Amino acid sequence: MISTKEIKIKSDGTKNSFFIKKGYESQERNNTLNANRSSNYWDFGRIINSAWDQADCYRYAQEYVLNNFKDVLEIGCGTLVKQNKFFFEKGKRGKFYCIDQEAAFQTAAQIVPILKNIQPIVVDLEQNLDDLIKHLKSPDVNLKTILCFDVIEHLYNPCELLRMIKEVAKKDTEIIISTPERDLKRGKDCMGSNKPEHVREWNQKEFAKLLESFEFEIKDIQIMNDTDAKENCKETMLFRINIR
Predict the structure, then answer these.
(1) Distances (CA, A) of 61 to 28, 146, 205
(2) At a CB cut-off of 8 Å and minimum separation 6, what does 76 contact?
(3) How far apart are CA 74 and CA 237, in angstroms?
């Protein structure tokens, strides 16, 4: 764990810059939060793209989400379009805890049915998450799967997110997390994200080091298509991990 004030904007290659290569420059804040923006993050273009982006990650997760009746936690659920298509229409039962900004749930309520088993949670992932951890560790919550697709690159300080995942997971909890693979998406010479909402982007080696620094055990790594909207766009890396 490092505090926000310890973060290096210009990477020194250490934990203080989340093991990204030296010289890489991160964004100076989380530009996904509506509080840091002049317009709603969920504009028309993002709503349309939400039906396609990271669809391969949801296909991968079906095996773990649909094969049991236990609870699921998804961090950064967005508009719930893909969850409806890949999980709920396929018969997913059990509670589905969803974390996102309030605007995401307001958007979701207009375009997909909000089922009774969906448990929306509005929280800032960069603030202290002790109350959320306490809630998710209560006896009536039984998390079997945790999903976090293309969220971590949006956070200025991802430490609290990773701590929360580690705290609420059990030994048999399947944790599936994805993020853009920088070398594949931007090229090996990239020294900063050209997308304002992405604070930083890792390559596979760097991201594995970050996860291992939080003592996660890596079980599987896959390179996935970034979106269903185009072909041959294997630019997203997916890690399936467990706590040790």
Answers:
(1) 32, 10, 22
(2) 99, 100, 148, 149, 150, 151, 154
(3) 17
Q: Which one, of 104, 156, 99, 149, lies nearest residue 129 by Cα? A: 99
Taking each continuous run of H as one helix and of E as one strand, the counts in the chain are 8, 7
Token pair of 47 as six digits: 């709503």
Query: pTM (2 decimals)?
Result: 0.95
Question: Is residue 69 left, alpha or beta, with left meaning phi > 0 and alpha meaning psi from -120 to 50?
Answer: alpha
The two structure tokens encoding residue 167: 């705290």
Average pLDDT (58-70) is 92
Distance CA 174, CA 76 (A): 17
H-assigned helices in 50-158: 55-65, 81-83, 102-111, 130-136
97: enclosing H helix or E strand? strand 96-100
Look at residues 82, 161, 90 and name the one whose alpha carbon lies nearest to residue 129: 161
Fold of 9-243: Rossmann fold (3.40.50)
Rg over alpha carbons for the chain, rounded to the nearest Å, is: 17
For the chain, first and last CA: distance in Å?
17
* C-alpha to C-alpha distance for 80 and 98, rounded to whole angstroms: 9
Place of tokens 């790594």: 221
Contacts of 123 (CB under 8 A, 6+ apart): 99, 129, 132
Structure tokens of 72? 């699921």
Q: Among candidates 177, 105, 104, which has minimal Cα distance to 147?
A: 177
Percent of the chain with pLDDT over 90: 81
* Spatial separation of the C-alpha atoms in residues 180 and 218, rounded to whole Å: 17
Question: Which residue has 């840091």 as its token pair?
Answer: 36
List pLDDT tens digits, range 107-123: 888 877 777 889 999 99
DSSP state of 67: T
